[in-house]
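thread: overnight batch results

M.L. [08:02]
morning all. the overnight job finished for the chain we discussed friday. pasting input first so we're all looking at the same thing
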Amino acid sequence: MITVREFRPSDAPTVWALNNLPSVGAADDSVPLALPPEPHPPAAYPDLGDIAGSFLEFLVVETDGHLVGMGGLKPRSETHAEVLRVRVHPAVRRRGVGRALMAALEDRAGELGFRAMFLDAATNQPEALAFYRGLGYAEAGRSTFPRWTLVYFTKEL
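M.L. [08:03]
and the structure it wrote out:
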């Protein structure tokens, strides 16, 4: 069973571990569901060190007692919320975890009065690009950097 709920401070070490798993690639059953907790937030993502202070809303997904997904919302205007730090454990990808998480984030954004959401994904994440398109997100632009290209998506709620 998939359960989406609000982040609790006790989730932080597992959230940090989930964030460190590969975000590129398809499902991988060889990755154990039980993640060893990380003692410190990832340096590249300082907002994960202060989730309550950095995000308007941060949700986690559990299945069989394991934290297997996460994602947050940040306001970017009175009408637009940004989706950030979406991760799904490789062992449960393509099993509805990401869809449940995104539906909950969209519902929560609507409840908070936002009319649209936006997010980005890199072109080296073809599964993520297809996933967001499949959820009705439309490409709204691209930015090219020396080592990757970001694709920006938006969706009206």
